[in-house]
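RECORD TYPE: inverse folding
INPUT: structure tokens
STRUCTURE:
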């Protein structure tokens, strides 16, 4: 069967453009077969002339039985459902569903503005909560929110790193969406005042809006992949996943006659499938498969210090960056007594961009102070400074790898440093 495909990723405020393209295809002898994922519309040859109308609806509930019966009696049959829209088909020449422009404008304003308010309200709420947490931490834990806290956002979880990476695109996209919505509200209000039909966006404007909407969907793909990568690496909270699954089962287990909202049931089924995938990724031994997708931590084999009786290494890795902390205790008697005298400690970063590595290097040098941090003679991008007491600190920069080491007395020497730099060279730093 012949088919014709059309990009149908219209934003919510372009309902008239979406309706116009459906009727244009209908005038050419095609009828809508299906809208795939809210992005692509497939058309097949029409056996008889048809026309289309798009009607607003509340995504939290289905249209009432009386309303659906009224539309069916008028000849309109629902052939699709998208976010905030029902797609209706009828024989060509059928009277439109909505003829009251003022009523349609009020419904559009109510639903579209609510959607915008929910979106920006959610964003504002998240930012407010983060601001409160930052303020509380600054008050009750001074120094906890230093520069390390913000840089480790790139190394904590893959999902968080991806959100940070996409943030410069998401915020302008949200502003463009809201601006187009307010523009459409103004156009419709002026049309009502002049008693004119609502304007249909031009082909160029409608195409640009569809492409921007499609770009928004495309940006979801790497975000979903990052989320799945966290599941494989067992970074997801198992209790949250199980709780979501129980909630979906409760929704699906209710009597359909008591719950008319079919959309909620569809969402619950889809969410349950996603949760099942996450549980499988979380429970199966797949963490080894993630190594090839994650940044290699600095000095992935042995640490930077000579072997000790007791040592600990903590790695934080994402597809974007890696952060490692090393701690060694040479005197086990201090560990038994609960004192834990640290002999060697340090941290290393593998960062995605040179400017971020410059920032981290600058923060370390600022902590040392310009007077005490001096380049080590005979070495490139190596600094040694005297810390508290007689101990020395060593700062090393190789490409986008930054090492900050606080070894015990007598550790820093030419042989130790040469071996360490050779290992960094082998790692490609």
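DESIGNED SEQUENCE:
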């Amino acid at each position: 069967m012949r088919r014709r495909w059309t990009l149908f990723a219209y934003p919510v405020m372009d309902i008239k453009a979406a309706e116009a393209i459906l009727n244009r295809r209908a005038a050419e002898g095609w009828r809508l077969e299906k809208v795939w994922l809210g992005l692509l519309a497939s058309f097949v040859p029409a056996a008889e002339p048809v026309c289309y109308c798009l009607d607003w609806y509340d995504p939290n509930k289905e249209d009432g039985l009386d309303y659906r019966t009224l539309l069916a009696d008028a000849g309109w049959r629902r052939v699709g459902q998208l976010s905030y829209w029902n797609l209706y088909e009828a024989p060509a020449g059928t009277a439109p569903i909505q003829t009251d422009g003022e009523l349609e404008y009020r419904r559009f304003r109510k639903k579209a503005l609510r959607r915008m308010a929910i979106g920006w309200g959610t964003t504002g709420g998240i930012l407010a909560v983060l601001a409160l947490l930052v303020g509380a931490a600054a008050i009750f834990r001074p120094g906890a929110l230093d520069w390390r806290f913000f840089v480790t956002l790139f190394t904590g979880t893959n999902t968080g790193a991806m959100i940070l990476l996409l943030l410069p695109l998401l915020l302008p996209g949200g502003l463009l969406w809201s601006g187009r919505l307010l523009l459409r509200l103004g156009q419709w209000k002026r049309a009502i005042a002049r008693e004119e039909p609502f304007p249909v966006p031009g082909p160029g404007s409608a195409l640009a809006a569809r492409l921007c909407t499609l770009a928004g969907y495309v940006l979801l793909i790497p975000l979903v992949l990052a989320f799945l990568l966290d599941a494989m690496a067992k970074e997801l909270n198992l209790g949250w996943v199980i709780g979501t699954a129980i909630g979906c089962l409760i929704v699906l287990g209710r009597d359909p006659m008591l719950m008319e909202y079919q959309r909620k049931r569809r969402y619950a089924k889809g969410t349950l499938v996603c949760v099942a995938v996450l549980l499988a990724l979380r429970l199966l031994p797949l963490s080894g498969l993630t190594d090839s997708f994650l940044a290699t931590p600095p000095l992935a084999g042995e640490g930077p210090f000579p072997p000790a009786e007791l040592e600990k290494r903590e790695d934080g890795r994402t597809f974007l960056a890696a952060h490692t902390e090393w701690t060694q205790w040479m005197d086990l008697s201090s560990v038994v007594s609960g004192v834990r005298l640290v002999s060697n400690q340090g941290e290393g970063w593998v960062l995605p961009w040179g400017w971020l590595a410059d920032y981290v290097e600058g923060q370390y040098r600022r902590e040392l102070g310009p007077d005490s941090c001096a380049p080590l003679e005979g070495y490139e991008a190596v600094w040694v400074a005297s810390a508290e007491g007689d101990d020395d600190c060593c700062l090393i920069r190789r490409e986008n790898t930054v090492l900050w080491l606080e070894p015990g007395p007598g550790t820093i020497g030419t042989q130790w440093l040469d071996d360490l730099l050779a290992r960094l060279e082998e790692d490609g730093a």
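NOTES: The chain has three domains: 4-99, 102-288, 310-426.
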